Amino acid sequence: MHLPDMNLLVALDALLDEGSVVGAARRMHLSPAAMSRTLSRIREAVGDPILVRAGRGLVPTPRALALRSQVRSVVEQAQQVFSAPQEVDLATLERDFNLRANDVFIAPFAAILLETLREQAPRSVLRFVPEGEGGDEDGALREGRLDLYISATRDLGPEIKVQGLFSTRMVGLARADHPLFERPITACRYAAYEQISVSRRGRAQGPIDSALAAMGLQRRVALITPSFHSAMFSLPDTNLLLPLPEHVLSSVARLGLPLRAFELPLALEPVAIMQAWHPRFDNDPAHAWLRQTLKACCSTYRLN
């Protein structure tokens, strides 16, 4: 079905309101000649003269009078669509927010974020979804399966929006009575003990290995786990060492495990943590609120 140019509705509304081609032209910033041509198109689309000559002026036809309120309503609704305020009623918002993050983020920040949702958007749900096959974060963001991806800064493609949340640094963790603590911790002594690598993709190598290699040293990774919390429970009964982001230490303390943190004897760059989203959500007020809320929650941590 062929639909007429919707701009004709706006012109028809102006013509019916002004009762004059000149007045309607002035309102729509057109010349009288252009408005006359528009009136001809309206007459053809509606199948009615709409306005007819009566002395020196124009009067609406019965068909035009019948259409007046309907046309006015449609034009007002269209104006509301394009001028609707970017607001959201958080108290009544019913939405599932899908985030992807590992336990390094979930442990220290999820409770803070959830508490904010309870206070401001009590009908919304916070869902942390697992990693897909092959690390499909960019695809999941593009397809709308993820609202936010939270991770160490990485390239997700040119169209994906990224905002920094905070920076953290790597520290070490071991059982409280580990022999490592008997003498000053040097790079050589650190590399001598078997270690844990935390990787959702099963990787054993990373920046620590590069830093050790620059010093002519090499560590042995004896255990690879998908999460930091599963790795922590391997420490109390072994001599394993676990490198982990410093901001997780507050969660470690709450677990009450007999563990002790230590400074890594290596020169490592801070780790920048980001949140990423697809531009489709840029102007979504609920999504913008989520991003702002998450950013505010992360401001509770500051790299020393």
Automatic annotation (TrEMBL):
Gene3D superfamilies xref list: Periplasmic binding protein-like II, Winged helix-like DNA-binding domain superfamily/Winged helix DNA-binding domain
UniProt cross-references to CDD domains, sorted A to Z: PBP2_DntR_like_1
Stored InterPro entries: LysR-type_TF, LysR_HTH_N, LysR_subst-bd, WH-like_DNA-bd_sf, WH_DNA-bd_sf
Stretches assigned to the HTH lysR-type domain: 4-61
Annotated signal peptide: none
Pfam families: HTH_1, LysR_substrate
Keywords: DNA-binding, Transcription, Transcription regulation
Domain of life: Bacteria
GO MF annotation, one: DNA-binding transcription factor activity
TM regions (residue ranges): none
Similarity comment: Belongs to the LysR transcriptional regulatory family.
UniProt name for this protein: LysR family transcriptional regulator
Provenance organism: Pseudomonas brassicae
